[in-house]
Amino acid sequence: MTPLPAAGSGATTARAEAAYLGLALGDALGATVEFMTPREIVHHFGVHREIVGGGWLKLRPGQVTDDTSMSLALGEAILANGGSVVPLACAEAFDAWMRRKPVDIGNTVRRNLVAFRQTGVPVAPSSDHDAGNGAAMRVLPVALATLGQSPAAVSAAVQAQAHVTHNNAVSDAVCQFLTLAVQDLLRGCSLAETLSHHLGSLLAVHPELSFRDRPRRENPSGWVVETLQAVLQGLDDGDGFEDCLVDVVNRGGDADTTGAIAGMLAGALHGPQAIPRRWLKALDPGVASQCREQARALLQMAAR
Q: What class of enzyme is it (predicted)?
């Protein structure tokens, strides 16, 4: 059996950069059709496959939303704390991000960050109602920073960032699954291997997250169950990076987040050579540079 590459290897670094760029590209592509239904997308675009901006947020071509900007804010906090994922540091980073008046912010994120400002407590109360996808969309920096650590350490880091805004068992399970899946893909595992490693344990506790025996998830909401179903269906059925992202965002609904998560996984799976050059050219160059630099820095810290 060929040993898998280490955290600091060239192959892993290339996949990590592709995962971060995939996150931003899926975000920028999906934001154009966020909150549209598949039928509306067909009416306006036929098949939406170009990064053109617009949408309800009236974005510039290549501009990203909270999915990418919160991930970058989290990554900066992790790097500033020597690779540790510390709840207070995460909360302060998210609060600073919110004070910069981002182009978009989820209701659960806003509510729990306002509560943090008022109380100084960096962990939101546990809530059955906070099963949105706002913590799942930003797991990538944690996956990179904890690559090679024990499952217990990874789990603790996942919850440290998630619970600042989303203290919910289903959200936790999806965040954990996505983090471990990204790490497997970064090491060179196939999608089939990755799903066989982690999907069974996820569905044993949360069978509602099953995706292969469900109809095509159209118009996915911000509920993390629908988000994961749409993403995994697109990844499982897709023929490469571009095909996966086009499939996922054309389902409409919360398309910037489904696109971002699908792009993260597809980038880690298929690597940088699979990313369309025209999409990279369209992406905000400052964001692209931040994604590449942060991916390398987090992996270097994990390797140490």
A: hydrolase
